[in-house]
Here is the input.
Amino acid sequence: MGITTSREKCRILIEDANSARYPFLMCKDDHVYLIWQDVENKTYFKASHDKGLTWIKTTLLAALSEHSCYCYPPAIGVNGDEISVLWTEVSEGKGFRLRLKGIPLHKAHKSGRPVVSTIVRRKSSDAGLTWRDEQVLVKTKVSMEAQDEIDNPAILSDGTRSYLFWLDKRNQKLGEIFYASLDFRKDRFPISGKNLMPPERRSPKRPSVVFDKEKHFHITWASFLVGKSIVYYCQSDPEGNILIDKKDLTKNTGRRHNPVITRTSSGLLNVFWFDEPKEEWSRIFLKTSKDNGLTWEDWGS
Here is the structure.
């Protein structure tokens, strides 16, 4: 006897996405929030308030200055009724409003012009219907030798406070992962934050973070040197104190990118990433921990 299955047609949410990348979903109750970035460095928001059945009109949240590449994804966090969307901004001069007018970032560095890197936030208190003006959370001058800026913000919220992670190059040319605990009602911005761990001899990229039941952070990132990278994991408490020192989840160096960490309701930790072999098809990898990050094994072991 055959099995009958119901099939729904795929739904096109954006007809012309303009070479979009970095779609990111956040869910809370019946609400589904979607952000993404397009090839013109514009950041967009779209929402559904009925579990994805219908979607409100797309909102343009930011039109950024010209980056060296559009490889710095935006981030979204939900704390109670408040939505925060964050992104990286680059500017020329002292304030982030003096933007690079048609000058690529690498040319601005060569010309000797000062460049300021920022993490910018817009918030909504009505499920994405209206948005407040831009707010600068972090601001750092970038050395003239560097061609990358602050990038890759990640944000988590526990219902009371928000926690921000980002790559920062204020102290180290290769950059460090910084951390800050935020109270948007009381803190004065921009904030400084602190480096989460001692500097590496590699360039860390794309932190990804989840909570566990004790509100400890489980953090993963890719760390690059001369085009080769490895994927690290570590655990910290809400004050930024390291509980489990960084572990190498990869067996050897390669072209490994965009690690993402998830945690199931049963406590299983999963880290996904993809690689770019020179002469092979790209692959997706998965590493799993059944003991809250103490040990890691290949999926299915």
Observations:
- The mean pLDDT is 83.
- Residues 105-110 form the longest helix (6 residues).
- The two ends are 35 Å apart (CA to CA).
- The chain has two domains: 19-162, 196-301.
